[in-house]
C-alpha cells in the first residue's frame, strides 16, 4: 500500500495515511481513461447545429436559363451548393453525440486516473478543510500553504463555506466524492483531498 503524508491547512505534516491499492494502486489503463474523457465531452455536447441542404433553402425553383446555347454551364437551380445563397452539401443536422460506458469501465477509468496522480506525487491529503466564514483570501492562503495552484479540491460533504470561498478562484474547482470524474482529475495539476473524502472513496470503489 502507498503511504502519503497528511497535511493540515498550514501545510505542515500531521500524520500519514495508507492508500488502498485496490483504488490508488491499480494498473493504469490509458485506453479506458481516454474513453471516459471522450464520453464526458461528447455527452456535454448540445448537438443542436443545423444548416440547410438545397432541398430546404428558399427559392430556386425555376431553371435559371435554358439547357443549351447560352455559353454558360448548365444549371438547374440557383439554390444548388455552388451558388451564393445555395444549400450546404451534407449539411449538419441536430444529433445526439452521447454514448455509454459500462459501470466497470467507468470505475476502472476513475481508479486509473487517481492512481496516476498518486504516482506523480500530485495527490495531497489534508486532515480537514473548514472555514468559519466565506473568505476567498483565506482559501487562497491555504492553497499557498499546500504549494498548490491549479487544483481539484475533493470534499467528503459539500461544506458551503469552503465551496463558496473557492468559487472565485479561477484555477481551483471543488467537487464531492459523488461528483469526481476522470476529466477533472486529469485537467487539474493537483488533486487535494480531505482525509474523510479519501476514506469514502476507498469504501465506494475498493
TrEMBL record:
GO cellular component assignments: ribonucleoprotein complex; ribosome
Subunit structure as annotated in this protein's UniProt entry: Part of the 50S ribosomal subunit.
Region (Disordered): 44-87
Superkingdom in the source lineage: Bacteria
UniProt biased composition (Basic residues): 60-71
GO molecular function, one term: structural constituent of ribosome
SUPFAM superfamilies xref list: Ribosomal protein L4
Pfam families: Ribosomal_L4
Described purpose of this protein according to its UniProt entry: Forms part of the polypeptide exit tunnel.
Gene field: rplD
Protein name, UniProt field: Large ribosomal subunit protein uL4
Keyword entries, A-Z: Ribonucleoprotein, Ribosomal protein, RNA-binding, rRNA-binding
Protein family (similarity comment): Belongs to the universal ribosomal protein uL4 family.
Amino acid at each position: 500500500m502507498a503511504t502519503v503524508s497528511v497535511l493540515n491547512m498550514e501545510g505542515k505534516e500531521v500524520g500519514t495515511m495508507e492508500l488502498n491499492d485496490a483504488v490508488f494502486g491499480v494498473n493504469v489503463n490509458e485506453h479506458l481513461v481516454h474513453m471516459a474523457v471522450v464520453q464526458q465531452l461528447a455527452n456535454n455536447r448540445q448537438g443542436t447545429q443545423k444548416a440547410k441542404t438545397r432541398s430546404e433553402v428558399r427559392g430556386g425553383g425555376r431553371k435559371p436559363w435554358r439547357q443549351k446555347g447560352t455559353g454558360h454551364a448548365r444549371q438547374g437551380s440557383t439554390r444548388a451548393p455552388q451558388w451564393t445563397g445555395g444549400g450546404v452539401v451534407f449539411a449538419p443536422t441536430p444529433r445526439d453525440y452521447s454514448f455509454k460506458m459500462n459501470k466497470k469501465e467507468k470505475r476502472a477509468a476513475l481508479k486509473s486516473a487517481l492512481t496516476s496522480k498518486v504516482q506523480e506525487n500530485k495527490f495531497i491529503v489534508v486532515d480537514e478543510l473548514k472555514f468559519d466564514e466565506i473568505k476567498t483570501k483565506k482559501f487562497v492562503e491555504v492553497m499557498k500553504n499546500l504549494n498548490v495552484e491549479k487544483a481539484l479540491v475533493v470534499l467528503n460533504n459539500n461544506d458551503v463555506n469552503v465551496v463558496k470561498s473557492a468559487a472565485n478562484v479561477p484555477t481551483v474547482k471543488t467537487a464531492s466524492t459523488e461528483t469526481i470524474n476522470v476529466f477533472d482529475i486529469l485537467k487539474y495539476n493537483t488533486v487535494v483531498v480531505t482525509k474523510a473524502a479519501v476514506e469514502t472513496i476507498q469504501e465506494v470503489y475498493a
